[in-house]
Amino acid sequence: MPDLTDVDFDGMSVRLDGQVLRLVLNRPDRRNALSSESTRAVATLLTDLGREDTVRAIAITADGEHFCSGMNLRRERPTAGERPRPTSAHRSIDSGPHRLIGALARIEVPVVAAVRGHAAGLGCSLALVADFCVTSDTAVFSTPFTQRGFTPDSGSTWLLPRLIGPARAREMLLLGRKIGAEKAAAWGLVGQVVPDPELDEAAEALVRELAEGATTSLGLTKWLLEVNASATFDDALRTESLAEDIATRSLDFREGITAFTERRRPNYRGN
C-alpha cells in the first residue's frame, strides 16, 4: 500500500486518516477545477485501495467557498498547431474523469461528499456519485455542458435521471438550469442540507459513523444497489441472498449478533 501521509495530485490531495481516506480538492483560486492528470492519478489510487482492507470510508471535501467547477478547461484545451487525433478527447475523458467517477461508484466502502458553493459539470457528478452528499445551504448544482457547446460527461446522463427523473434531468442537462440546495433536497438530488457553518461537522459525523460500521455489509449493500438497479426482481432476490451469505461469514456479523443479544452497541472491526 502506498504511503498516504499527504499526497498531492495537482489540485487534489489524498491523506489516510486512520481508516478514513480523505480526498480534498485544493485549488480554490480556480474553484477547485480538476485536470485529466489528477483525476487519472486518484482513480488509479482508488482502484488499488479497493483491494486493501485499510480504508473503511472516504470523505470528499473542498477548500474555499466552492466545491468544484468541473474540468480545468483552460488546461484541457488543445494548443495551436496540429489538430489532435480523432478520439483523443474520448480517450482523455475515459482515462481520467470517467475512471474517477467509476472508481468512486464501485469501491465497496461508503463515500461522503461535503458540498458548499458551486458543484458544476464533473464537480456535480463527483458530489452525486457519493453515497451521501451533505450539502451547505450555499450549494448550487449545475451541468452547463450544452451551454458551452459540448455534451454531458462524468456519468451525468446516468446519475441525474435516476436521482430526479427524466423531466428534471432535462432541465439540468439540456437547459443548464442551476439548482440551489433547497430545491436539490426537494427533488431528491441530495439527502441533507445544513447551514453553511455546520457543514464540516455534519459531514464528519456521518463519515465517522460509516467508518465505524460493519464494512463488509456496507460494501455489499452498496454493490447490491448498483447491480440491482438494472436487474429483474428474481435476479435481485438471488443477489441479495448471495450477498447475505457472504456477510454472515464476517466477524462483524458475529459481533453484531452478539451485541444485539447483549443489548450493547457493536464494536465493528471492518472484517
From TrEMBL:
Family, as annotated: Belongs to the enoyl-CoA hydratase/isomerase family.
Superkingdom of the source species: Bacteria
Protein name (database record): Enoyl-CoA hydratase/isomerase family protein
Cited CDD domains: crotonase-like (cd06558)
Organism: Actinophytocola gossypii
Pfam family, one: ECH_1
